[in-house]
Sequence to fold (690 residues):
Amino acid sequence: MQLTNRSKVVVQKEMTMAEQIYLPAIFKGMMITISHFFKKKPTINYPEVKRPIAPVYRGQHVLKRDEQGRENCTACGLCAVACPAEAITMTAAERKRGEESLYREEKYASVYEINMLRCIFCGLCEEACPKEAIFLTDRIVKVGTERDTFIYGKDKLVEGIAADQRIDVGKRGGAHRKF
Amino acid sequence: MELFDLLIKLALVVAVFTIALVIAMYSTYAERKVAAFLQDRLGPNRAGPYGILQPLADGGKMFMKEEIIPSKADTFLFILGPCIAMMTACMTGVVIPWGNTLIIDGKAYIMQVTDINVGILFAFAVVSIGVYGIMIGGWASNNKYSLLGAIRASSQMISYELAMGFSIIALIMTTGSLSLRDIVEQQSGFHWNFLYQPLGCLLFIICAFAETNRAPFDLPECETELVGGYHTEYSSMKLGFYLFAEYINMFISAAIISALFFGGYNFPFLDKIDAPHNVITLIGTAIFFAKIIFFIFFFMWVRWTLPRFRYDQLMHLGWYVLLPISILNVLVTGAVTLFRNGQFHF
Amino acid sequence: MSVIAFYILTVLCIFSALMVVFSKKPVHSVLYTIFCFFNIAGHFLLLNAQFLAIVHIIVYAGAIMVLFLFTIMFLNLNAEVEPHKSNLLKVAAVVCGGLLLLILVSCLKGAENIPVNPMLDTQMGMVKNLGMVLYNEYMLPFEMLSILFLSAMVGAVLLGKKETK
Fold:
């Protein structure tokens, strides 16, 4: 049965004189390579020129604060459950009196760690989060030479309180999200 | 004026040596650039503008690397190998005529280190000795891959030297001289030898590829089957010498090809230019270097186009194809020469 | 100048020739042979025979010794596995060597009386003159030699050919 008309029957025909010399074939090949010599190169010189990143690019995580500067995360653990790479660990703690300006809910994560070597940046943590606390951003995780440096604690994950230290999560956060 | 002559020669030797080294240095850069461009890439472009300081960075890296001599290696020969490779690569430059005469103080100085009357044979002899560098290095490493590389190198060299020698003999029959200078002088204007010896020219170029161990004849160091070939055990600057020697060989081969078959420092309409003798000489030298650079580019162009031969194909090509064709070429050239001289009697 | 060069070359030549015999490793022997050939080429140069010198290097150092080295590399001969030679062989070798020495000495003794021609042409060693002499005066021996080589080649091909039954 013939599936496509691209199939070719193998023939072992004698090579012609021109084919046996090989030089015409070599010449043809060299013309092909030289034509590539003058082609425009598709290379992008990375640090100077950057490719535009997709709006849904999933890079380094951020733990968001609300408008009053309180941490959104309530240490429910849904992100850790959702994580297929088991990269997220956390320890929950109860909010003390006087810490209302720091944490939005009565429970918060005293330790929140993401192992960036395990993380596959799938974004399931973001989808699992009921409090709009964790988001993936367009930032790139920095390289390091020690394994320890890839375990990101709250010091690296939580965004700053000041307006200029807030990290924009673009279209990800906000009202359009359906829960 | 004895001393002045000596100084001129000394300056010429130093200049040839420096130019050979600088061109070889930038051939490494050019190789990477050409390879990249032929493959739609940009190549090294980080060290300096367009990456032109890349050879310096590579050289610095080579010097900094740790020197390793295998404990079971023959230490003396292990060091001697790259020395011979480098030395023979640098030696051929002395017989190549880099330009016509320069007239200083009414005295003519030829731009050639020495014009020995068997110049072409000298170049051939030095090339044939070059294989010892590879063989000794490969054997002294005490490593089976190195040994295989060395054995391949020697058998390849011997096989292709024959065809190369015959193509040179055919050329000598037409020129009637063994001196490279005479051969170049005869090609003034556009009487370039490749017009008279097209087959010999082709054979010579193919054999030059084989003698310099360049792709598609780079079996002695073919990385896919022999790790690194004869320089598997080498590191640091000793490896650098082997790699560098290959590029110097390429430069010298390009120079010899352009001197023997493509007119050397001659170019068409040379005598039409109304300029002082020295200026014309310098233009000729520049033209010669342009030809050399073109052939270096050609070497690279072929390397990044053609796949490597299989070993039996290599031997088949050398013994069953190139050798008979070159012998035929010698016979035809001899017959034609006799016929043209009117000495052909039936 | 050339006398000093002659003595240096001669000393190096004899030294390397002796080292060919005395070195333990066969590969070293081959390399000393090559070195010896270079010194002989130097002697040719001193005699103003440039063509002979270069051809000597191309043919002996560049081709024949490469094949020697090639074969010896294959054989994997080491100082440790060198086969023990019997005393009879040693005696035979000494006798043969002595006979060769005797012949050489007797030849050189006769050479004293050959008058050295001071008017010898210095251009004698050039390619053109050499070719003229070879293809005029010594035409017959030269062609005989090439036939000898041809027969050797035919013999080698015959030996290398597979027997078809």
Summary: The radius of gyration of chain B is 21 Å. Chain B has one domain: 2-340. Chain B has a mean pLDDT of 84.
